[in-house]
# Entry
Amino acid sequence: MNVPHEERGKLSERVYDRLRQKIDGGEWPQGTRIPTESELAASFNVSRPVVREALVQLRTEGAIDSRRGSGSIVISAREIPKRSYEPIENVADLISAFEFRLTIECDAAASAALRAKPQDLAEIVAAHERFSSELSDEEFGDCDLAFHVAIAKATGNKLFEATLSMLHHQILFGMRLTGEFSLRGGGTRAQTVYREHAAVVEAIRGRDAQGAFEAMRDHLLQSRHRILGFDVPSDWRRAAPIGTSLAVPL
# Structure
C-alpha cells in the first residue's frame, strides 16, 4: 500500500495515541511485552512502517524498550505529555526542518564535546557502533535517532534532549526519503551514516568543540543533499558554536 508521507505521519500519530493510552491507562503495565509490528499493523489496519514510527516515538519517550528476542517491553507507565512539531507536508517544510536542526544539533555536538561525562560518551559510542552491523529499517531508524538524542543528552541541557525528541517525526521522515534515493560513492545507507557519525564521535571524544560542530554540520548537510538531491543556498552561517564566535556572512 503506497501511502503518502504526510498521511503516514497522521496515521502514526493515531496509532501512537492508542498505544500511549494502553500504557498510561494501566492496560499494559510495566514489564508487558507488547504485540509485534505485524500484529499491531493488523490490529490497527495500517502498514508496518506506520506502526514502526509510533513505536520509535514511545522508545524516544522512554515508555518502551526493545529487548533482543523479546520484542518491545513497557518500561515506564508514567504519563508523558505529548508534544511534537507540525508534520512535514512539502519540500519547503523539509528544508525548514533541516535549517532548524542545523542551528540546534551543531551547537549540541559542540556542547557535548565540552561537557560529556564518561557514561555519556559510552552511550554515544554504543549508538554509533550499532551502525557497523546489518540493520533492518526499524533498527536503522532507532539507531539514528538514538545517536542524535545521546549527543543531546550529553550536553547536560535537558532542552536539547527534549527538542530532539520532539523532532522525531521530522527526522524519521528524512530517513524514509533517504531510502528512496541512491547513495553516491557506493556503500549502504548505514555505512554512509556510520562514516559521517564517526567524525562527530571522534571530535566529541577528543573534546574538540569546533570539530564536533563542523562534523555535525557536514553530516546534516550531506543528509539533506541525499534527500533533496541538491544543495540549498544559505544566506548566512555561524563559523563556530554559540558563545565562541559571531556569525559571519557567506
